[in-house]
Here is the input.
Amino acid sequence: MPQGNNALAISFFFIFMALTLVITYWAARRTKSTEHFFAAGGQITAWQNGWALAGDFLSAAALLGIAGIVTSNGFDGMIYSIGWLVGWPIVMFLIVEPLRNVGTFTFADVVAYRLTQRPVRMAAAVGTLAVILFYLIAQMVATGSLIKLLFGLPYVWSVILVGAVMLVYVLFGGMLATTWVQIIKAGLLMAGGALLALLVLLHFELNPLRLFAAAAEKYGTKVLQPGSRVVSGQWDAISLGLGLMFGTAAMPHILMRVYTVRDVKEARMSILHATGIIGIFHLFVFIIGFGAMVMVGPEAVAKAGGGGNMAAPLLALAVGGNAFFGFICAVAFATMLAVVAGLTLSGVATLSHDIWASVVRNGNCPESEQLLVARGATVLIALFAIVLGVLFEGQNVAFMAGLAFSIACAANFPALVLAIFWRRFTTPAAVASILTGTIVSLVLILLSPTVQVDLLGKALKEIETNWWFVPLRNPAIIAMPLSFGIAVVVSLFTSETAADDRFDEMRNRILFGAPRANLPQAAE
Amino acid sequence: MTAKEFRSNRGAVDLANRRLRVALILSALMIVIYFGFMGLFAFDKPWLGTILVPGLSYCIILGPAVIVSSFVLCLIYALWANRVYDPGVKSLNR
Here is the structure.
């Protein structure tokens, strides 16, 4: 076991940190308006944005969490890989054109477009913040265990370190710096993942089937077959699928990225690039997970702690020695840092753009003030992330991130889709749908075995007879239909002439984009 | 009033509806592929786990196939939008 003070790993780590700080400094000198802070001035190209999207999306859950699940359970880990990809086509087909042409910074812009601004934005902010906090917990937990392994620092200090570094570059660099860090990180992550997969396959004559066969020989053919340890119930599997697919199409930090490019065509192409990059990466992760199973062993991975999250770094040590271990650790660290920053930024956009500027100040808020509020909100979210990260030590990242997607799927997706496609949709319905989705998901998670058994340590036998017990670990299959249902029922019982009238205006805008006068000058 | 203009702009309404149709068909395809796979995973594990040759089972083939198919569907949409939809929007009067 490598413990602490790995000089090579630590130097890689500092080289990366220095690089990101230079980018932040460069970006900070260019961040002069909210348009720059939240949308990088709309100057990012499709190819760059594709990498940045992949960077935002390929979190610790992808490299560390899924690899860990594959290592200990075989094929079942792939359920997460697949689920995290199939949402992208949905974003592409249903969401991207309306989102880009109707909104300005956040998805709430689109939901609120033809409804009453204040209540919708407040509800959307509640949903968004719930999603972001859950996702942040997942990232902070993985980062903590990684830094513990790398530096030998205590868990609490490693979480504080990540929080502090993240704070620095979101605070000063905003979206432009975050985007560049994402691009570099996504490039490194792909290169590292490809190299790791290649080094594994070199031991198996470059034939993945030999690797799988070796795994089956060592641990039984069950590793190549769907099992029930990762997702226990049948309906739980479908529920997880729903959450991953439609949650992806409603993740606030991903949706925010369609505004960083020049126009809707660039947005579309960036989604295509991102889908390709993420798909290929997930295939690498599958090889990496099986590689770790055969060459490191599930027992050794489990012993390293952190909910199986350390499979990929330990495999790097086994196939590439200390230098490669350092490289993978640095890349994984950068990954989490960048995702945490992207999440924070979108939480900040919610607090300052949706809540402060639109609700508190009723849209009459000078830009300098909005920027000030944004920076204050960054500090607040960083503190929350640190505290929650410490509390949830030891959970598997992929699973925790899955819960964040389930909340997004129930809270944001129904309102977003109905706002775009259904003329009869009304303000009370949007508010009811978002709040129902958020609250029902959170309550179901609270009553599920995840919290009751894993976190609170109650015995499953004792609580499963209680009337309130929820056997599902993934809430989407109940919460999402409820959220849709409430939206439809409330819409049918209320009527909103203004919303109805503006539906065609919105369709016009989806087709042609914003009227010329409203286009940001940066588009030229 | 843009809303009225939009309703009277036949070409625009047609193009918007056409995009909606393409988007819905492709989404439906993706949903069928994915939940077909998840359905097998949830309700027919023995078949999905059939070992074909050493190191290969149905799920090892179908899993990556779902990943590839989502990229292919995205590619189809992007090509259609770039080659048909965008020129269509340009040729319309705002």
About this structure: The two ends of chain B are 12 Å apart (CA to CA). Residues 11-87 of chain B form one domain. Chain B has a mean pLDDT of 89. Chain B touches chain A through 57 residues (CB under 8 Å).
